[in-house]
Design goal:
Elements lengths: L1 H8 L1 H22 L7 E9 L5 H13 L4 E4 L10 E10 L2 H14 L10 E5 L4 E5 L2 E5 L2 E3 L15 E13 L7 E4 L5 E8 L2 E12 L6 H15 L2 E15 L5 E4 L7 E5 L5 H16 L7 H4 L7 H24 L13 E6 L2 E7 L5 E5 L10 E3 L4 E3 L6 E3 L4 E3 L10
Helix pairs in contact: 1-2, 1-3, 2-6
Bound molecules: FE2/S2 (inorganic) cluster.
Length: about 425
């Protein structure tokens, strides 16, 4: 990441990114003194398995050290056997994000802040004041931060500058000693390992099998592939929990934190953390607080949402948007044209009725649920996610429950029932 930022934006931006993230870790460490969130200091290893990538690791270490991080080049990485080289970052940390957030919420309440759950914002009108429309009424505010994962307002084309990534995690019980550190194999797909203590029990979290949302084939197969990889590496007794995640990755890898668009006063955004939101989100909180207070943030430049993609990433950006156009065209032309006679319980499919794609799902009790298969964002045709029983959009990552209820943006409306 550091070499990538340096080569695209210069060393000063790499330094800002490093300081923002390291300060975020220290902020969590300080708060963890009062919040029980299983905070533990750990070393973090990012490693490669391909001899050809060794020099990339060396460069990463050099840049990371030059911007003040405690980074070392290592040829042996504990816990993993397939590493040929890695970078070890000291003074990193792991913590339980939900326990941490619940502690933060408690502090906010003590400070007189109000928190409204289950209140969907349907529109934000910028201005002085801004007007926030919700299902239950309109709220006014001097400043608004869109921190809804994908921003619910997209005046600056964020959908074309980020790609949605799904990845999978298993919490496994093993007979091996607990890994001492956090481990991340870069590349596609990545593979990550870290220890996790829960209710007196030691588990190992393994993650990976990432793919573009709505384009990875059977998601149940992804869990099976991840379990096979976990069993190859550890003496696994059983899989205790599993879940998947959705992350948005900007084309240059750096989150967007700042004004949502130069012409939208008082509306800010924090998005595109690419899976690194536990530190990036804390950094965003501080940057936006400073900007709203009028002080400006010393780290604002590197995260500026208005930045242009560097030339080296323009090709990737074009390929990403070409992929979206291709999916749009192919799915509208090629998705099935007629309904077959039967649909077994637990299965789903897209059929064509009067030329329009319709999603059909039969639940385990045999009841059929039919929704429009046309994503309300920009009209791509959704795909069935068999592990989570959701409809996922292959273009920009919107997700909908089996009954059409919107779960993740950029779409903000449900799939209509058929
Ligand atoms: S998320 Fe953009 S078309 Fe579905």
């Amino acid at each position: 990441m550091y070499d990538r930022i340096r080569s695209r934006f210069g060393r000063e931006h790499a330094r800002q990114y490093a300081v923002a993230n390291q300060t975020a870790i220290e902020t969590v460490a300080e708060r963890a003194a009062d919040i029980d969130c299983d905070f533990q200091r750990r070393s973090a290893y990012t490693y490669v398995s391909d001899e050809n990538d060794r020099e990339d690791v060396r460069r990463e270490v050099d840049v990371a050290r030059s911007v003040g991080l405690s980074a070392s080049f290592v040829e042996e990485v504990p816990t993993v056997s397939d590493a040929v080289a890695g970078v070890r970052f000291d003074d990193q940390a792991q913590f339980h994000p939900r326990k941490y957030l619940l502690g933060v919420v408690e502090e906010l309440s003590d400070d007189g802040c109000d928190l409204f759950e289950e209140t969907r914002v349907t529109n934000v009108q910028p201005g002085s004041p801004c007007k926030i429309e919700t299902g239950g009424g309109t709220v006014t505010a001097t400043d608004v931060v869109l921190a809804s994962h994908f921003p619910i307002l997209d005046p600056a084309g964020y959908f074309a500058r980020m790609s949605p990534k799904r990845s999978y995690v298993l919490a496994v019980r093993t007979r091996d000693p607990q890994p001492d550190g956090m481990f991340y194999r870069s590349g596609e797909p990545y593979f990550s390992v870290r220890p996790h203590e829960t209710e007196g029990e030691s588990l190992v979290l393994v993650g990976g099998q990432n793919h573009k949302t709505g384009q990875g084939g059977s998601t149940a197969d992804r869990y099976r592939a991840l379990e096979r990889e976990a069993r190859r590496r550890f003496d696994v007794e059983d899989v205790v929990y599993r879940w998947s995640t959705l992350d948005y990755r900007p084309v240059d890898g750096v989150p967007f934190i700042g004004p949502v668009a130069p012409w939208r006063n008082n509306v800010y955004v924090a998005t595109g953390f690419g899976g690194w939101g536990m530190s990036g989100g804390v950094a965003a909180g501080r940057i936006l607080a400073e900007e709203i207070a009028g002080d400006g943030s010393e780290w604002a430049d590197v995260f500026d949402p208005g930045r242009l993609p560097p030339l080296s990433d323009v090709k990737t950006l074009a390929a990403e948007n070409a992929n979206v156009a291709k999916r749009f065209a192919e799915d509208w032309v090629l998705k099935p044209r007629g309904a077959e006679a039967s649909l077994p319980p637990g299965a789903a499919r897209v059929v064509r009725e009067n030329g329009i794609p319709v999603g059909e799902y039969r639940d385990d009790d045999g009841e059929r649920h039919r929704v429009s298969a046309v994503c309300p964002h920009l009209k791509c045709v959704v795909e069935w996610n068999d592990a989570e029983r959701t409809w996922d959009c292959p273009c920009h990552g919107s997700r909908f429950d089996y009954d059409g209820t919107v779960l993740d943006g950029p779409a903000i409306r449900d799939l209509p029932k058929e």
